[in-house]
Structure formats: C-alpha cells, structure tokens
Amino acid sequence: MCCNSQLVATVDRDYCLLIYPFPEWESIEQKLVALPSLNPQARRLQRLMVGYATELEIDGHGRILLPVELREFAGLTKQAILLGQGNKFELWDEDSWNEKRDSWLNADDDVDLPAELESLSL
Prior knowledge:
The protein is an alpha+beta fold. The protein has one domain: Transcriptional regulator MraZ domain (Chemotaxis protein chec, 3-Layer(aba) Sandwich), CATH 3.40.1550. It is built from 5 helices and 5 strands; from the N terminus they run E-E-H-H-E-H-E-E-H-H. A 5-stranded antiparallel sheet has the order 3-1-2-5-4. The longest helix is centred in the first third of the chain and has 12 residues.
C-alpha cells in the first residue's frame, strides 16, 4: 500500500506511539468515529487516538519529525525501538519497551486465550 511519504502517528494505551500509513489511518479513523459516542470506553478511545492523531511526512532522508506532545507522551528521549506490527508500526522508548517486553515474557501462561487465538498456530 502506497502512502506517498505520508504517515499518521497517534498514542496507544501502552504509552507508545502508533504510526500508520495515511491510507491505513483513514480506515482506522472511520471505524473509531463510527463507535457509539455514548459509550464511555469508545469516547475515551476516540479522544485519545483521534485527538492525538498527527499527520507526518517522510523527508528526503527517510526521517520523520515527531511533535513534542507525542514524544513526551511516549517518553521518547534518546533511544527508541520501532516495531513492525502488520498494518502499523509501534514506536517505543527503549527503556519502556524493555520493561514491557520483560513483563510480557515473564507473564503467567495460565491466562485464558481469547477464542480468536485458540486456533492460531504459529
């Protein structure tokens, strides 16, 4: 999918940034806006993801400039981790990523999987 050097960055509840190719974001945004506005969880998600959504452009050297608000939200200082997640990227502060990763790796495996994951073979 071509994005013509345009991306959209927004916040995630894990305190990282989500970065979408612009056409992918348009689809996500439509779904978010269509959520029921009287549902408090839906409104919270809309306020965060749509409210913080910021269009970015990839410069001639393949770089993007993140606004201060997004950098502060994700705690981005010097070192960052960029993870491909299918239709998007996650951008993490390196220390935050290492903490989360370690907690996920050490999590109790006795947690019930959602039905959608029970038949998944990796």
